[in-house]
Amino acid sequence: HPDSGVQVCVIGTGYVGLTAGACLAYLGHRVTCADASADRVAALRRGTIPIYEAGLDELVEAGASSGRLSFVTSNLDAVHDADVVFLCLPTPQDADGSADLSRVLAVAAEIGASLKEGAVVVNKSTVPVGTAARVAEALGRPDVHVVSNPEFLAEGSAVRDFLNPDRVVVGSDDASAAERVAALYAPLDARTVVTDVASAETIKYASNAYLAIRLTFVNSMAAVCEASGADIRAVTEGMGADRRIGTAFLKPGPGWGGSCFPKDTAALVRTSEEHGFDFSLLRAAVDANAQHRRWLLGKIVGAVGGDVRGRRVALWGLTFKAGTDDLRDSPALELAHDLVALGAQVRAYDPTVTTDVDGIDVARSALAACEDADVLAIGTEWPEFSEVDLSEVASALAGDVVVDCRNVLDAPAAAAAGLLYTGVGLRGVG
Ligand code: UGA
Asked: Please, are residues 402 and 376 in contact by the beta-carbon 8 Å criterion?
């Protein structure tokens, strides 16, 4: 895209900040990314990408060679000539479930005096309603407007999601500030929702909470299907054909996890409580998600006769989903921990994990993990798992049960290889 002449600063080079920075440079803006970690900045300048994200390395390289993307350690150096400053900082979960804003507010206080006259500050981090006002206060700059522009990037497809968004949400109580931020995305020709700050901040939480509730519903339906002789794959296909429902995000699994859904659902429950509303539906979804994982844990334990003490469990997949190396709040890893806590020996394999994690033994291959194991469980939907020769799995295992928490294997092929296969909500193989 042609040079826009707009100077953008992105503070924080996590997966959101780095993706946003590289994509904004691709769209024609001049982007300076700042990160407090000197090691991270040095690595990025060498073109080494610290996260596993499809297409990101090419974009960073293209940005660096066009001169439109640079990396610095000093926030003040990064903001001094910026027209728009994006805050892409972590907002981890506090002990009480609320989002911890200390990083966001500390950076706002730091950069306030150094911002260019009339600059716009954008909150990209997931922050509760009211944060824009708190950031404005920390900035201490009446001439600088704070805009909420939440991200809807999923890990593993962040670049694609940024460049092909379903919508761009821009919230501001100042129309021209909103317009300036929306204009950055103009080359994408995306549907843009321009609204007030509180609504923009809420759209992010509402979207993630809705998706989490939807998955909880599917996982509960899977359990019902399995018990009643229906097949969740047929059920979700039939449901998804209704345009009001849609086909995406209907795959049962071991429960939702990752760095966003658990944190954002807890934060929305908490914010609602603070405003005097008991979000019982969302609380129930959080509980049902944990219950669902226990149900699958029960299947694995049942496969070895009800007591896993001293038994060997092979586990395929540790990341919270395929296509990422992220282990944060991973249901697969939680299953591993639960099994270890019950006395099992867990040997895991994950294509992105090469060293042992949290006391879980990590094997070099899917087959190596199965060696002499009493049961095989599958926790992450890596496509390569469906390529493994199941007769070799059957001969490597000491036992014969496979508990596929992602429905990635072909049930008839598993049966043909002599395995006792069970999935999530599948007819006839429960
Ligand atoms: C999620 C949202 O999808 C993004 O839109 C949002 O921007 C992001 O959170 C965020 O707030 O930053 P992400 O956490 O990367 O993205 O992962 P998802 O692909 O949404 O998956 C979340 C969880 O749901 C995973 O545990 C995944 O395995 C599970 N899932 C997803 C299913 O079990 N079934 C599905 O059909 C889809």
From this structure: yes
pLDDT bracket for residue 275 (50, 70, 90): very high
- Taking the domain 7-195, which CATH number applies? 3.40.50.720
Res. 430: pLDDT tops 60:
no
Task: Please confirm, yes or no, whether 9 is among the known catalytic residues.
Answer: no
For 104-133, what is each residue's pLDDT tens digit? 999 999 999 999 999 999 999 888 889 999
- Ligand 1 in contact with 399 (CB < 6 A)? no
Write down the domain spans for the chain.
Answer: 7-195, 231-430
pTM: 0.94
What contacts 204, CB < 8 A, 6 or more positions away? 126, 150, 151, 152, 169, 264
CATH T-level fold of 231-430: Rossmann fold (3.40.50)
**Which residue's CA is minimally distant from atom 7 of ligand 1?**
152
Catalytic residue, candidates 23, 33, 260, 370: 260
The residue whose CA is least distant from atom 20 of ligand 1 is 154
> Per-residue pLDDT averaged across 87-103, rounded?
90
Residue nearest (by alpha carbon) to ligand 1 atom 11: 260
Q: Cβ distance 24 to 8 under 8 Å?
A: yes
Distance 171 CA to ligand 1 centre (A): 23
> Ligand 1 test: best mutation among 155, 203, 218, 232, most atoms within 8 Å of CB?
155
Q: Is 205 in the pocket of ligand 1 (CB under 6 A)?
A: no
Question: What value does the CA radius of gyration of the chain take, rounded to a whole number of Å?
Answer: 23
Q: Which ligand 1 atom lies nearest to the CA of residue 153?
A: 7
Q: Identical fold at 7-195 and 231-430? A: yes
Q: How far is CA 338 from CA 100, 205, 325, 400, in A?
A: 28, 29, 21, 21
